[in-house]
Task: inverse folding
């Protein structure tokens, strides 16, 4: 079943980018996704792409390095990587990232310190390019596709083609691929999310208060920040979809304002390892205590990666009417799970949320409370028991969500 849907999925992915004639495309993917990668490349060339490059993100090769490399070699990255990313920035390459591994548990139990050493250098090399991506300087899209081991993890079944088809039956309506024109369906959904973001902007929220089981969290918002939902735009006005699926509206909090406690309601992949039943306590914008039933060492390594990893860079609201939440499925994949529930991200803010970001100096960004980091990982804490209240700049108080649903 899934293989017969690959052409229509590839068409949606490439259409979502709104490629310019002659624009080059980078595809990041694990080898397991080659059938989809090949179809995306074909679709891109048919729509006028100049060149398609594929980066194979091979989990087994990475695992071999972490487990077997000499310690002094783990921080090495060839210099041509930085040159290559600089060229892609200069030439305005588009990006498709097929962001799910063949086996979600492949990197479980790895030495967290060795993993961090290897990741840190790569993240530093990619940082300028990722900044441009987060600023929407070029079109990009993150997607996922079923694999036997991922399907087995989600469904508790055998890792075979039948499980892939069963997972695809769940994913297909979430992706609107069951509709006559999936792209138009995403345009409609994008307009709905944009209207929600516009309503939130009009409220001029200065502070959000989240209350639920294990959660009593308050954070302030940057005055220059605005809410985003649905599609994004490049500087020349081209509309594209950064995430398929997407059900969130999000903005940039003041990194120094977060205080209180929060209980994470869905598992999260952190540095390749599953972190489950995590909890955090914040003081003056930083994580000061944390715990997890599983993956605590990976979470500890993540938090110590750089100065911004302990502060919040994004806050996102997701209604529990989201088709992903309503599927009652935990996907063990941030793209899907973040669009099932309200979440915060530890790490970098999205520059696209902040008016005039490109003209701000580093010191001014710091002064405004914009979090900066080489990392960005989402932690879901939404549920049908979550209430979200807000305070406006004029002191007015109002309710935004009640029992996980928008009350605006």
Result:
């Amino acid at each position: 079943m899934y293989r017969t849907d690959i052409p229509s999925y590839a068409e949606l992915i490439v259409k979502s980018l709104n490629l310019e004639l002659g624009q080059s495309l980078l595809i990041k993917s694990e080898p397991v996704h080659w059938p989809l990668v090949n179809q995306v490349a074909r679709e891109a060339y048919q729509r006028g792409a100049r060149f398609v490059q594929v980066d194979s993100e091979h989990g087994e090769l990475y695992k071999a390095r972490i487990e077997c490399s000499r310690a002094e070699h783990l921080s090495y990255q060839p210099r041509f990587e930085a040159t290559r990313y600089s060229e892609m920035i200069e030439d305005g390459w588009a990006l498709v990232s097929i962001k799910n591994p063949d086996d979600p548990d492949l990197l479980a139990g790895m030495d967290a310190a060795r993993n961090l050493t290897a990741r840190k250098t790569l993240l530093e090399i990619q940082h300028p390019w990722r900044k441009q991506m987060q600023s929407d300087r070029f079109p990009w899209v993150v997607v996922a596709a079923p694999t036997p081991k991922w399907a087995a993890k989600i469904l508790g079944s055998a890792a075979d083609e039948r499980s892939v088809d069963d997972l695809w039956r769940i994913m297909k309506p979430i992706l609107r691929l069951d509709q006559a024109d999936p792209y138009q369906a995403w345009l409609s959904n994008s307009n709905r999310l944009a209207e929600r973001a516009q309503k939130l902007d009009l409220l001029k929220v200065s502070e959000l208060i989240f209350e639920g089981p294990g959660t009593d969290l308050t954070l302030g918002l940057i005055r220059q920040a605005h809410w985003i939902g649905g599609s994004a735009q490049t500087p020349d006005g081209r509309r594209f979809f950064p995430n398929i699926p997407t059900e969130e509206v999000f903005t940039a909090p003041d990194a120094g304002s977060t205080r209180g406690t929060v209980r994470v309601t869905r598992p999260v992949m952190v540095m390749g390892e599953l972190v489950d039943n995590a909890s955090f306590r914040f003081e003056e914008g930083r994580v000061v205590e944390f715990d997890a039933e599983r993956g605590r060492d990976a979470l500890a390594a993540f938090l110590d990666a750089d100065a911004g990893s302990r502060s919040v860079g994004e806050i996102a609201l997701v209604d529990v009417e989201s088709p992903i939440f309503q599927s009652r499925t935990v996907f063990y994949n941030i793209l899907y799970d973040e669009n099932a529930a309200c979440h915060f991200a530890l790490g970098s803010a999205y520059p696209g949320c902040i008016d005039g970001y490109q003209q701000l100096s580093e010191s001014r960004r710091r002064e405004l409370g914009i979090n900066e980091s080489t990392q960005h990982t989402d932690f879901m804490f939404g549920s049908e028991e979550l209430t979200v209240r807000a305070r406006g700049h004029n002191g007015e108080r109002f309710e935004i969500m009640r029992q996980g649903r928008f009350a605006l």
User: Anything to note?
Assistant: The chain has a mean pLDDT of 94. The chain has two domains: 2-174, 204-406.
